Amino acid sequence: MILPIIGYGDPVLRKVGTDITKDYPNLNELIANMFDTMYNAYGVGLAAPQIGLPIRMFVIDCDAFSDSEDLSPEQQAKLKGLKKTFINAKITKEEGDEWAFNEGCLSIPDVREDVFRKERITIEYVDENFVPHTDVYDGLAARVIQHEYDHIEGVLFTDKISSLKKRLNTKKLNNIMEGKAFPDYKMKFINKKGR
Fold it and tell me: Is residue 69, in this structure, part of any structural domain at all?
């Protein structure tokens, strides 16, 4: 089922998510709905706060990047079929040089800016079956995970851009809060009932 995506300005996007247990109600259905919602909006990641749930869970599918001509065949291979659910995640290490990439967010439509992030991360999490993992990711996979991880920490990519860029985007951000954004997917805005 496709759920509405929560728009910029909603307090749920600023909450630090809480851990969940394997008996969380309708967990498998929730995960399926999150993937459906993400694909419907042509996203590569979606965090639970973006559908109104302040819990530590996000999903990613990096396959859309796997045919990018800007990437080496090795990088493309790392992204091919990289579809995962992260529950109760904790990034334990961020390493390497910071590099810029133009990011956007389904909760902040029509705003894109360069964001600097470290190139490699180590992350501990449990999957949808509550099997624990410790994985290392780099490049675009690390970036997608860092972006979604920020959501469960109450952080948005706009927090990581310069004050000048923030000022330049003020009108767009205010429009999102007022429901004056019109992406081609269902959204719920803080100052307007969903359309």
Answer: yes
